[in-house]
Design brief:
- The chain is mostly beta strands.
- The protein contains three helices and 15 strands.
- A hairpin with a 3-residue loop joins strand 8 and strand 9.
- The chain is globular.
- The N and C termini lie far apart (42 Å).
């Protein structure tokens, strides 16, 4: 835990994260690379490399309900093992809401966790591969009810395919297949993967136009 900000635990804070997003809540805990806040409804697990800055705020700046011992749902943890990787492992098989791109949350569950990415099953996009580096925050569901009130068979696949250890290697498995990078929106890329070499993905668009993408800036991928 960072000793500089340790005194702010259990205090109200305002946090600016990547994308100029402002989050407010009670600072619950700090880990080596993760912060946890409670916003009155949910626990937010925020990787510190997306935290641009934060400050203590007064109660009149943000009205929230302070968490109690019975508040759920937060993962079992202590500050010594509160890391992003451990949190992702604890989230496996549990319904979560995750933020990566603008104001487009993804709902579903983490099914496998690898070195620098994780597999996420969404009832909308089905199986997705998400770069851990681009995860801005994660919210575990308060109840066991699935996203969109769907049956568990829609949000948690029964079969888990073997994965490569790194995001680069996993994307390379989809050579000559159609896929979408960065889900929908203005920053999405749709096409057929022609080649993957080191940090570059060669993607062929609909009319034989080729784009060359830096894999470090690719947040998500799913096959179509």
């Amino acid at each position: 835990m960072n000793k500089i900000i340790q005194s702010l635990v259990k205090e109200l804070v305002q946090i600016e994260v990547s994308g100029k997003k402002i989050l407010k809540g009670v600072l619950i805990d700090l880990g080596t690379d993760l912060m946890v806040i409670f916003n009155g409804t949910d626990y937010l697990y925020i990787p510190t490399h997306h935290v641009h800055g934060f400050r203590a705020i007064q109660k009149n700046e943000f009205e929230t309900i302070f968490p109690t011992e019975s508040s759920s749902n937060q993962f079992e943890r202590n500050s010594e093992d509160l890391t992003l990787q451990n949190t992702l492992h604890q989230a496996m098989g549990k319904y979560s809401e995750i933020y990566l791109i603008d104001d487009q949350p993804l709902h579903g569950c983490i099914t496998q966790v690898m070195a620098d990415y994780f597999e996420f099953y969404s009832p909308v996009y089905k199986t997705m591969y998400i770069s851990t580096n681009h995860l801005k925050w994660l919210i575990p569901y308060v109840s066991n009810e699935g996203p969109y009130r769907l049956d568990s068979t829609y949000v948690n696949p029964l079969v888990k395919a073997p994965l490569e250890n790194t995001f680069n290697a996993q994307i390379e498995k989809f050579k000559f297949k159609m896929g979408v990078f960065n889900i929908g929106g203005s920053k999405s890329h749709i096409g057929k993967i022609i080649n993957v070499e080191k940090q570059i993905v060669e993607l062929e668009k609909a009319r034989e136009i080729k784009n060359y993408l830096n894999i470090d800036h690719l947040k998500t991928f799913h096959e179509v």
